[in-house]
Design brief:
The complex is a heterodimer of chains A (about 325) and B (about 450).
Chain A lengths: L15 H23 L1 H25 L11 H11 L7 H16 L12 H12 L1 H4 L18 H11 L11 H6 L11 H13 L6 H20 L7 H6 L3 H8 L10 H21 L6 H15 L13
Chain B lengths: L21 E3 L5 E5 L9 E2 L6 E2 L4 E4 L8 E2 L4 E10 L5 E9 L24 H10 L12 H4 L10 E5 L9 H8 L1 H15 L4 E6 L3 H11 L5 E6 L8 H9 L14 E5 H12 L6 E7 L7 E6 L4 H7 L7 E6 L6 E2 L13 E6 H4 L12 H5 L6 H9 L3 H6 L10 H5 L6 H18 L2
Parallel strand pairs in B: 1-14, 9-10, 9-12, 10-11, 13-17
Antiparallel strand pairs in B: 2-8, 3-5, 4-7, 5-6, 7-8, 13-14, 15-16, 15-17
Helix pairs in contact in B: 1-4, 3-5, 4-7, 11-14
Classes of the chains: A mainly alpha (about 325), B alpha/beta (about 450).
Chain lengths: ~325, ~450
């Protein structure tokens, strides 16, 4: 007896699990860096976030939704856990991390139907929930022991910038860390966001393995660079230089790992560019004019909400070229 | 290096029979020659049970404008004219001929393989007549009658002839082998087609995973006027007519129109070779090269096979169906058809027979769509397969038309590239005819 089925009789070796594992591999350099800088607490926080994300997804699948197929096998919950922890300060109480995981997996992911059905990036929903609920704990950054630069101890570069804007000081009156320090990660901040170089290594890996396309990261960082560059040219006393913007805060982590989440970003290349453009503009607007020092999370969530609309844009079709 | 611009995927090539010389398959005891091996009306039988035929005897007359005649590929006696299951298991009229072992050819056919390059003695009308008489169809798989293709509507001007030597399907090497061994004949064939169309240049597109074929064809083409060999970047489905046109000329064929509408005609290299044989050797299309391949086969081969030889006989000639074969495909793994039984004949459009083991043929378990967009990136027509899949599933046929489902030519790039292993094309295929019905009803 021969099997019959319609064509194609050939499948590529990619699978959801494999793609998710690629993302995890790409996150390793940033994780190693955070452990080096923050010590054991970084590892503990990440482990707690990952384990609680896995547990909540498993529990909801098994006992609440009574699914026969347990979806944690696809590794996406691990990514949510790692990304959530990367967005948290290293001394956050453990129970808050668990609440964040519950919100990320329970509310942002599973209540919409699990992987592929959620509208908002789960890790970011978890983070923003914690930020709004526990603003003090979420913005208390520990001194980066030996790595502390004078004047930046206990504050993130973007926090300093916001303070200066709010207090009416000019950029030259405050001392912002140099771009080199930002690039390597000699600064305060959330677990996974501090080292540009570690994140870039991961990003290059993702693009080389074709796990993500270049469109979203390049358009986010490019837009941020251009828009903040224009502001900088208009008034360098009130606006930080564009390199500072793309290397500080969650810009790299957001552009490479958060905004590129498949489910919550557009499907077409054109859509991805537009999506990245929106995130870039919104981030700089929030950083410069908003109440929060950092706007990456909000910008991504806002553009997540617009993604179904952006998906209405059809790709360029064969046969529509004017002769 | 040139290629088409929208979408495309890179399946593993697995050209197991690469570099294998063309070998002649044994003549079977019986051949089963279908009267419908082409797009259009089936041919009408011109022989009766009990008649004796020679190799090249016409046994089916072209019935209508879009049709092609059919010839006997063996010498022997007509045993049956009846309905037999074709590749899809649907019964079609076929002529069964029992061979007499003599292999007697029609006297008009020149059997010698001497090359004849001089075509100055043939008028375009004569060449076209020969092409019609030889029953040549597009041998890349679409099987559109060649004579009809070379008769474009009066109101269009053809300025480019494209020759398809792409062979982008994994596993298949039939055209590759032909280009290596019959480059001269192919070039003369191209000259003949050019003469029919009255144009001066032909572009031959060959993917650069066949450097030996590119070199050989370039070397031979240099001795002809106006045959240019164009190496192409490897990308599936470059062998699709529309995509080869875009890769070679930059033109795009509008939705639901023929290549002639942009002044182009595309022929396969095997068709060009068949034209050479029809005109120069007076030989109808009675045999073709078939790649018989699969990881389980001891010796994947390129076999010169008489039309009507059953898959069973052909596989038998190189050691039989390998142990553990779960799926047998007529054609390549991307667009080929899985067959139910191997008692089906090789036809004019059969480019390969592929035996897959259970492990290779196994479809991965379907999981949630993660909206990664790989199907959109891969679609060479610029469609949104994930959306067409859902619309098809929900029977939303009007919306399927809004999203141009009729452009889909079922290349399989979407299903191939899906990391969630969604059967995207299966559902699109189900919805498409309904959408077309709706479209026609509203006209």
């Amino acid at each position: 007896m021969l099997s019959v089925s319609p064509s194609p009789h050939y499948q590529s070796d990619t699978s959801t699990t494999r793609l998710m594992c690629n993302v995890l591999i790409a996150l390793v350099p940033a994780l190693i860096f955070s452990v080096v800088v923050f010590g054991f607490s970084a590892l503990l926080l990440t482990a707690v976030a990952v384990i609680s994300c896995l547990f909540f997804e498993f529990a909801i699948d098994k006992w609440l939704l009574k699914n026969e197929d347990i979806s944690i096998k696809d590794c996406s919950a691990i990514i949510t856990g790692v990304l959530l922890s990367f967005n948290l300060p290293n001394n956050l109480p453990i129970w808050m991390v668990i609440i964040g995981s519950l919100v990320a997996i329970g509310i942002a992911k599973m209540s919409f139907g699990g992987l592929g059905c959620n509208i908002f990036n789960p890790a970011l929903v978890g983070r923003v929930f914690l930020l709004i609920s526990f603003p003090a704990d979420m913005t208390t950054w520990s001194k980066v022991s030996d790595y502390t630069i004078d004047g930046t101890s206990g504050a993130t570069p973007l926090g300093l910038l916001k303070e200066s804007i709010l207090s009416g000081k000019t950029i030259s009156q405050i001392s912002l860390p140099s771009v080199q320090d930002l690039f390597i990660g000699n600064i305060g901040g959330s677990l996974g966001e501090i080292s540009v170089i570690a994140l870039l290594v991961g990003g290059i890996y993702l693009i080389c393995t074709k796990t993500i396309s270049w469109h979203i990261p390049v358009s986010i960082l490019g837009t941020m660079f251009l828009f903040s560059g224009i502001l900088y040219l208009v008034n360098p006393e009130l606006n930080a230089n564009p390199l500072f913007h793309i290397c500080s805060g969650g810009a790299m982590l957001g552009a490479i790992f958060m905004a590129t989440d498949y489910t919550t970003s557009p499907m077409t290349a054109k859509g991805k560019l537009l999506f990245g453009f929106g995130i870039g503009i919104l981030t700089i607007i929030i950083r410069r004019f908003g109440a929060y020092p950092e706007g990456m999370s909000f910008a991504i969530l806002i553009m997540n909400a617009l993604t179904p609309l952006i998906n209405k844009m059809q790709p360029h079709r064969y046969g529509t070229k004017k002769q | 290096m040139k290629t088409f611009t929208i979408g495309g995927v890179h399946p593993k090539e697995n050209k197991l029979s690469k570099g294998e010389k063309i070998t002649v398959a044994p003549i079977p005891e019986r051949v089963m020659i279908p009267l419908s091996q082409h797009v259009g009306a089936p041919a009408t039988p011109t022989v009766a049970v009990g008649d004796t035929v020679k190799v090249g005897t016409k046994i089916g007359e072209s019935a209508g404008f879009v049709s092609a005649c059919v010839h006997s590929s063996v010498s022997g006696t007509v045993e049956k004219i009846d309905m037999f299951p074709d590749l899809s298991g649907i019964k079609k009229q076929m002529i069964v001929i029992k061979t007499d072992g003599q292999d007697e050819w029609e006297d008009s056919i020149i059997k010698s393989s001497d090359l004849q390059k001089d075509i100055s003695g043939f008028s375009p009308e004569f060449i076209k007549e020969k092409i019609f008489a030889a029953g040549i169809v597009g041998m890349g798989g679409a099987t559109f009658p060649m004579g009809v293709k070379l008769t474009p509507p009066k109101d269009v001007t053809i300025d480019k002839l494209l020759i398809n030597g792409v062979e982008c399907e994994p596993y298949l090497t039939a055209d590759h082998a032909l280009m290596l061994e019959k480059a001269e004949e192919i070039c003369v064939g191209i000259e003949l087609i050019k003469k029919v169309l009255g144009i001066s240049t032909a572009l031959v597109g060959i993917e650069n995973n066949k450097p030996d074929a590119i070199a050989k064809m370039q070397q031979v083409a240099a001795t002809y006027q106006g045959i240019e060999i164009v190496p192409l970047q490897v990308k599936y489905p470059q062998g699709s007519e529309k995509h080869l046109i875009q890769a070679l000329t930059g033109r795009e064929v509008p939705s639901r129109q023929l290549p002639a509408s942009v002044g182009v005609i595309v022929c396969n290299v095997a068709s060009a070779f068949a034209v050479y044989e029809a005109v120069i050797k007076n030989k109808p299309l009675i045999e073709r090269i078939v790649t018989v391949t699969g990881t389980g086969l001891q010796k994947p081969s390129n076999l010169l096979t008489r039309i009507g030889t059953s898959f069973n006989d052909l596989l038998g000639s190189i050691g039989g169906v390998p142990e553990g074969t779960d799926k047998i495909i007529s054609g390549g793994p991307m667009m080929g058809r899985a067959i139910r039984s191997i008692d089906v004949p090789v036809m004019k459009g059969t480019s390969g027979i592929l035996c897959m083991t259970e492990k290779e043929a196994h479809r991965q378990k379907e999981t949630n769509c993660i909206r990664c967009g790989r199907c959109v990136d891969g679609c060479p027509m610029g469609l949104e397969p994930y959306l067409l899949y859902t619309l098809s599933k929900k029977a939303m046929y009007a919306e399927l038309n809004d999203h141009n489902v009729t452009d889909c030519f079922e290349c399989g790039s979407c299903s191939f590239s899906c990391p969630a292993h969604k059967p995207l094309l299966d559902y699109i295929r189900l919805g498409k005819p309904k959408a077309i019905q709706l479209l026609n009803a509203s006209k």
